[in-house]
Design goal:
The complex is a heterodimer of chains A (about 425) and B (about 300).
Chain A: H1 2-27, H2 29-33, E1 41-46, H3 52-64, E2 69-74, H4 78-88, E3 97-101, H5 103-110, H6 119-127, E4 140-141, E5 144-145, E6 148-149, E7 153-160, H7 161-167, H8 175-187, E8 191-193, H9 204-214, H10 216-224, H11 232-246, H12 260-266, E9 269-275, H13 279-284, E10 292-295, E11 307-311, E12 313-317, H14 324-332, H15 337-347, H16 361-373, E13 376-379, H17 381-384, H18 387-402, H19 409-428
Parallel strand pairs in A: 1-2, 1-3, 8-9, 11-13
Antiparallel strand pairs in A: 3-12, 4-5, 6-12, 7-9, 7-10, 7-11
Chain B: H1 2-5, H2 10-56, E1 59-61, E2 66-68, H3 72-78, H4 81-114, H5 118-121, H6 123-126, H7 133-144, H8 149-156, H9 172-198, H10 202-210, H11 215-226, H12 228-243, H13 247-252, H14 264-274, H15 278-306
Antiparallel strand pairs in B: 1-2
Classes of the chains: A alpha/beta (about 425), B mainly alpha (about 300).
Chain lengths: ~425, ~300
C-alpha cells in the first residue's frame, strides 16, 4: 500500500516535470517564428508595430509578382528586438526575414555569418533601375550585399505652416534666413526648434545636422574614422550648436520625445528635424499638407554643395531561414515598383526605388527638392560608425546638451575622440 | 511506576538509539523526492543561470561570438569612471531608501494608527504602492520635466524654477528619483509597520502607561522594541529593492544624461542590451549579485542573531 502511494507520488512528480518541459518547449521562439507561417508565407521579424499592417500589404503585392506573402512578427522594444535577433539568428528558430539597420549595424550582423548574401538580388534591382547603385556600400560588408533597403528616409526640417504664417516667414533658402527665422519665431513666443536627449539616441540629431551642413566631406570622413572629433571643423559645428542653444532656439533637453508630434501639431514648437519616417505619425494624427511642410536645411556656407542625411531600414534574409529559397525568391521582387508603391503609401515614407512616386504631398515636396538640388547623400550618424562608438557618442552628446556652453566644447570633443580611438580599434580587431 | 524504576541496560539504549537513527535516516531519505522538484527548479532557474553569468563575465561576448579573456572585464570596470559613478548612485539609493520610505512609513503608520480617521488618511500613502514602477515613472516624468507640473507650479507662485532642470544634473536627478520612489514604496512599509503596531498586546502598553511612560518615552521604550521583527523585514526588503531599482530610472532618465544617474542595475542593462557587450554586462551583474547577497546576508545574520 505504502509502496503504491510512493509510486503514485513519483508518477505525479514525473508528470509535473513532463508538463513543465512541454510548457517551456512551447515558449521557445521556434514554435512561434517558424512553424506558424501559413502555406506559402514567409515570416518576418521587426520592431515597428506601425509597420505590421504594411508588411502584410507588401506580402500580398509580392505574392502577385511571384514572391510569398509575409507573416510578420513584432517585438515592440528596439533593445529587446536587437537581442532577440542576435540570439535567434544563430539558430533554426529565426524568422525568414529580419528588419535591421544599414551601415555599420548591418555589417555587425553580417560579419557574424547570420545573414544571407543578397548580391544577386541587388544586382538585378540595379539592372532594372529599381535602386541607386551608389548606395551599395551602406548595404554591404566585405563587398557583398546583405540587405535590401526597406525605405529611404531623408532627414528634413518639418515646419508648422500656421506658425510660419503667423510669424510671417517662409522656409529658409540660406543658413542666414534659417537663423533669422528662428529669431522671429522665438520673439513670437514659440520654441523655434525641437531638441531633446530624453530618448537617448536623439542627442546626435543637431550635431549631425549642423556638421553635415557645415562640411559634408568632413562629416563623411569623421564617420569613417578618417578624421578626428577634435579637428577644427567639429569644433566649429559645436560652437554653432552652443550659440543656437544660448539664443534659446531649442526645447529643453529633457522634453519627452513622445510629445514631439503633439507639440509640433499644437504649434508649441515650430520646426522639427527628423527623418521622413516621422511623416506617417504626423498624418495619422490628422495633420495635412495645409498644416505642415518640410524643407532640407540649407548649407551654412551659401556656396557649398547641398547635402542631406539619408537613412534606410534594411530587410535581410537569415542564413538559417527555414524557408530560405522562398525568402530569396521573394527578395528578387522586394524593390519591384508594384510592391514598393503600396508599401510606401502605407508607411508614408519614401521608397529606395527612384521610380516609385509617393502619393503624400509633403513627401512629394521633399523628393522634388532632392531632385532639384541633387544633394550629396550622407549616412545617418546612427548607422555611419560602429554601434558601440555611436551608443557611447550619444551619451557624451547628451551630456553636452545639458551644458552646451562654449567652455564644454573641448572636453566633449576630447571624450568623443578618446571613445572613437578605442572603439575603432575594437571594430578593426573584429570585436 | 515499576517500569520506571527498572534500570535500562546499555545495550538496550544503543539498540533504541540505532533504531531511532535508522528511522530518522529513512524519514530523511523519504523526504528527498519531495524536495527534488523545488531543488530542481532552483537549480534550473537560479543556479545554472548564475553559473553561466559568472562564466560569461570572463569572456568577450557580443551576443554572437565569444572568447575567454579572464578578468579583463572586471579590470575595465574598475577603470571606468561611469562604473564608479554607478556604484556611488547605488549607494545613494540604498541610503535614501533606508531613510525615506522606512522613516516616512514608520511615521505614517504611527500617526494614522493613533488619530481618529487615520485609516482614511493612510490611504493616500498606501495607494501609490498599488501602482506599477513604470506608471510611477510616467507620472513623475510629467511632474519633473522642465515643462512639467512642478516647474509650472513654481512659476504660478511667482518663483523661478532651477535652470538646470530636475532630471538633467547629478546629484539632483538621483535625489528626485529617490523621492519619486519613496512616494511609491512607502505604502508597503506603512502596511507592515501597521501589522507590527497592531500586534503589540494592549496589556503591555497599559502596563507601560501605569508605570508612568507616555508620548515619546512610551514609544521608544515600549512600542519601538516590539516593532523590531517587522523592522528587520522592512529594512531587509528596502536594501534589496534599492539595489535592484531599474524601471523608474530607465523610464525617467535612461541613466543619463550621459550615464550620470545610472545605478548598477541600469549599467548592467546598458552594457548588455544597448552596447551588446554581454561579457561586461555579466561582470556588472556578478558585482551587483555579490553586493546584494553580501549585504542581505550580513544584515540578516546580525539581526537574526540579536533576535
Amino acid at each position: 500500500m505504502n509502496g503504491m502511494r510512493i509510486s503514485l507520488k513519483w508518477a505525479g512528480v514525473t508528470a509535473a516535470a513532463v508538463t513543465l518541459s512541454l510548457a517551456l518547449g512551447a515558449c521557445t521562439p521556434g514554435s512561434s517564428s517558424t512553424k506558424d507561417a501559413g502555406s506559402g508565407s514567409i515570416t518576418l521579424n521587426g520592431d515597428r508595430s506601425d509597420f505590421v499592417a504594411a508588411y502584410k500589404i507588401a506580402g500580398d503585392a509580392l505574392s502577385k509578382v511571384g514572391g510569398s506573402t509575409i507573416d510578420p512578427r513584432n517585438v515592440p522594444s528596439t533593445e529587446n528586438y536587437q537581442q532577440v535577433i542576435r540570439s535567434s539568428l544563430q539558430t533554426n528558430s529565426t524568422t525568414d526575414l529580419v528588419k535591421w539597420w544599414n551601415g555599420y549595424r548591418l555589417q555587425d550582423l553580417a560579419r557574424s555569418g547570420g545573414l544571407e548574401d543578397l548580391t544577386t538580388q541587388w544586382n538585378d534591382a540595379v539592372q532594372k533601375g529599381w535602386v541607386s547603385p551608389e548606395t551599395k556600400d551602406s548595404f554591404s560588408y566585405d563587398g557583398k550585399v546583405y540587405g535590401l533597403p526597406l525605405y529611404k528616409s531623408y532627414w528634413v526640417m518639418f515646419y508648422n505652416k500656421k506658425v510660419f504664417d503667423k510669424v510671417g516667414i517662409k522656409p529658409p533658402t540660406t543658413w542666414a534666413e534659417f537663423m533669422s527665422n528662428n529669431d522671429k519665431i522665438k520673439t513670437a513666443g514659440v520654441a523655434p526648434l525641437f531638441s531633446t536627449q530624453e530618448a537617448g539616441w536623439t542627442s546626435f540629431i543637431w550635431f549631425e545636422e549642423i556638421l553635415s551642413k557645415l562640411d559634408p566631406d568632413f562629416y563623411a570622413k569623421l564617420m569613417k574614422g578618417d578624421a578626428k572629433y577634435t579637428d577644427p571643423t567639429a569644433q566649429k559645428a559645436m560652437a554653432i550648436w552652443s550659440d543656437m542653444s544660448a539664443k534659446g532656439y531649442f526645447t529643453p533637453a529633457d522634453t519627452a520625445w513622445d510629445s514631439e508630434p503633439s507639440l509640433f501639431q499644437k504649434g508649441t514648437v515650430a520646426q522639427v528635424p527628423m527623418g521622413t519616417w516621422r511623416n506617417g505619425t504626423f498624418t495619422s494624427n490628422g495633420m495635412t499638407s495645409q498644416d505642415y511642410g518640410a524643407y532640407v536645411l540649407p548649407m551654412v556656407d551659401p556656396g557649398a554643395k547641398q547635402s542631406v542625411i539619408v537613412e534606410s531600414g534594411v530587410i535581410s534574409v537569415a542564413a538559417k531561414a527555414p524557408h530560405k529559397d522562398q525568402a530569396l525568391k521573394t527578395m528578387d521582387e522586394w524593390l519591384n515598383p508594384d510592391v514598393q508603391t503600396p508599401w510606401v503609401n502605407k508607411i508614408k515614407d519614401t521608397s529606395a526605388n527612384p521610380k516609385v512616386i509617393t502619393d503624400d504631398p509633403t513627401l512629394k515636396s521633399v523628393t522634388d527638392q532632392v531632385a532639384n538640388t541633387k544633394p550629396t547623400e550622407l549616412n545617418r550618424y546612427w548607422e555611419a560608425s560602429p554601434p558601440a562608438l555611436i551608443e557611447g557618442g550619444v551619451q557624451i552628446l547628451a551630456s553636452f546638451m545639458v551644458n552646451p556652453s562654449q567652455s564644454n566644447i573641448a572636453p566633449t570633443l576630447d571624450k568623443l575622440q578618446s571613445l572613437a580611438d578605442s572603439e575603432w580599434a575594437k571594430w578593426k580587431a573584429g570585436k | 511506576m515499576a517500569l520506571a524504576t527498572v534500570p535500562k541496560s546499555a545495550a538496550g539504549d544503543a539498540t533504541i538509539s540505532r533504531r531511532r537513527a535508522a528511522n530518522h535516516s529513512r524519514a530523511r531519505a523519504q523526504a528527498i523526492p519531495f524536495l527534488l522538484p523545488a531543488l530542481g527548479l532552483v537549480a534550473i532557474m537560479l543556479l545554472v543561470p548564475f553559473a553561466v553569468t559568472v562564466y560569461q563575465s570572463f569572456t568577450s561576448d557580443n551576443g554572437i561570438t565569444s572568447s575567454f579573456i579572464g578578468l579583463q572585464n572586471y579590470g575595465d570596470l574598475i577603470n571606468d569612471p561611469s562604473f564608479v559613478r554607478s556604484l556611488a548612485n547605488t549607494f545613494m539609493w540604498t541610503i535614501g531608501t533606508l531613510i525615506l520610505p522606512v522613516g516616512v512609513g514608520l511615521l505614517v503608520a504611527i500617526l494614522t494608527n493613533s488619530i481618529p480617521g487615520g485609516r482614511w488618511l493612510r490611504f493616500a500613502f498606501v495607494l501609490p504602492y498599488a501602482i506599477s514602477g513604470a506608471s510611477t515613472a510616467v507620472i513623475w516624468g510629467f511632474i519633473l520635466r522642465s515643462d512639467g507640473a512642478l516647474n509650472q507650479a513654481i512659476r504660478f507662485f511667482g518663483l523661478t524654477p532651477p535652470s538646470s532642470g530636475w532630471l538633467l544634473e547629478w546629484p539632483n536627478n538621483t535625489l528626485v528619483m529617490i523621492v519619486a520612489n519613496t512616494w511609491q514604496a512607502t505604502g508597503v512599509c506603512v502596511i507592515l509597520f501597521l501589522v507590527g503596531l497592531q500586534a503589540i498586546p494592549a496589556e503591555t502598553l497599559e502596563a507601560g502607561s501605569l508605570d508612568g511612560a507616555s508620548g515619546a518615552r512610551l514609544f521608544w521604550h515600549i512600542v519601538f522594541p516590539q516593532l523590531r521583527p517587522v523592522m528587520i523585514v522592512v529594512i531587509g526588503m528596502s536594501i534589496a529593492n534599492s539595489l535592484r531599482v531599474f524601471d523608474l530610472i530607465w523610464l525617467l532618465t535612461k541613466g543619463g544624461p550621459g550615464s550620470v544617474s545610472e545605478t548598477l542595475a541600469v549599467t548592467m542593462y546598458r552594457q548588455t542590451f544597448i552596447l551588446s557587450d554581454y561579457g561586461a554586462g555579466a561582470a556588472v551583474a556578478v558585482v551587483l549579485a555579490i553586493i546584494v547577497v553580501a549585504s542581505s546576508w550580513l544584515y540578516l545574520q546580525r539581526q537574526l542573531k540579536k533576535g
